[in-house]
Amino acid sequence: MGIKETDDKYVAGTYKRFPVEIISGKGSVVKDVTGKEYIDMGCGIGVTSFGICDDTWKDAVVAQLDKVQHMSNLYYTEPCALLAKALCEKTGMKKVFFGNSGAEANECAIKAARKYSQDKKGSEWFTIVTLKNSFHGRTLTTLAATGQEHYHELFTPLTPGFVHVTAGDIDELKKLAESTKIAGVMIECIQGEGGVIPLEAEYVKALRKFTEENDIPLIADEVQTGNGRTGCLYAYMNYGIVPDIVSTAKGIGGGLPLGACLLGEKCQNALGYGDHGSTFGGNPVCCAGALTIINRIDEKLLEEVKKKSAYIFNAFKDAEGVEDISGMGLMIGIKTSRPAGEVVSACIENGVLCLTAKDRVRLLPALNISWDLLEKAVDIIKNACK
Ligand SMILES: *Cc1c(COP(=O)(O)O)cnc(C)c1O
After folding, report:
1. CB 351 within 8 A of CB 320
2. 145-176 pLDDT tens trace
């Protein structure tokens, strides 16, 4: 049996895999088992922020592996503390809880918002409002938060206490607040799985104002948009607002599983001793790697991200077979005349890995992809769109 057959037989059938077996890579190039090379325009799903086997990241990971690979959260370890400090210093947030995934980061954010509101206003203040077309994860609670019905089917009853409102309609939220005791509002500034759809700046500002005035924690789900992806360290920074809670994962670990929930001034003490925990959370190897990622997301890198973004937008703007292009930074959605899945298959054929999001081709290349590889990949994707 080959690897494909073994996987098909023994791994749970939750993924529709492309017929490609990746064995190695370096930077923005990956190689399959036949020796064929691909330019990586997906980075897992926005995970390998500085590419495959990035030297700086790898050195830190290996060095930590030689010291201690895991310690329970009963003890202190250096990488966990230093990463929390770096995240707080770069964002102005006050405390960090570490988990292992985006869903867990959101679970923590939801718990913190509920705890804050219930402590302050009473136990009936539990409802979390999210947006229609959002994606917040696959656990039963983050599925409840996810505003797309098709993810819910077959798994009901989901965790109660979630309501979805229309993105862009601040009056709908205000009306809801008259009849519902809202404990928190959670948004993705750019809806990733929803099709790479940025929220309108005016709406985000109005949302911040309303939640501020009503003492409702605002949660930014930065699992996909975070860690330099959109040309700012976190996407909310593009909007000139400061949320009360920020959840992130994907790109923060550079390829190892890590999630973080950043708590701002308002909610910094919402979770106290015994209120939350994670066996693996804050793992020293993951945190040592993540520290090299966060420390390198500086103004210079972000300027490069913006330049590369402008190049991609420009290249696809009037391209044949392209109907629309959306996103920010190096998080880009291309609406194609051909079905997006067909475009992605044609790209694979021609040596480029990219993703889809709903009816769009989605690009999430490494933040440091070389100009040379980026130009090559864009040419191949443009051809596949025709
Ligand atoms: C991917 C994603 C999640 C879930 O992250 P996991 O690590 O798969 O649990 C949550 N929110 C957003 C916005 C995401 O893109």
Report:
1. no
2. 999 999 998 899 999 999 999 999 999 999 99
| CB-ligand 1 contact for 357 (6 Å cutoff) | no
CB-CB contact of 349 with 383 (8 Å): no
Pick the closest to residue 232 from 319, 315, 331 (CA basis): 331
What does the pLDDT average to over 356-373? 98
Residue in 151, 233, 158 with CA at minimum distance from that of residue 189? 233
Pocket lining: 137 vs ligand 1, CB cutoff 6 Å:
yes
DSSP annotation of 142:
H
Residue 168 region by backbone torsions, left for phi larger than 0, else alpha for psi between -120 and 50, else beta: left
- Tens of pLDDT, residue by residue over 3-46, are 999 999 999 999 999 999 999 999 999 999 999 999 999 999 99
Whether the CB of 136 sits within 6 Å of ligand 1: yes
Output the six-digit token pair for 327: 């996103």
Quote the CA–CA distance of 27 and 90 in Å, as a whole number: 26
Nearest atom, ligand 1, residue 134 CA: 13
Phi, psi of 163 (to 5 degrees): -130, 140
Spatial strand order of the sheet with 95-99 comes to: 95-99, 259-263, 245-248, 218-221, 182-187, 127-131, 162-165
Q: Is 147 in the pocket of ligand 1 (CB under 6 A)?
A: no
Residues 6+ apart with CB under 8 A from 161: 114, 126, 127, 128, 144, 183
Closest CA to 368 of 322, 318, 302: 302
Distance CA 359, CA 336 (A): 8
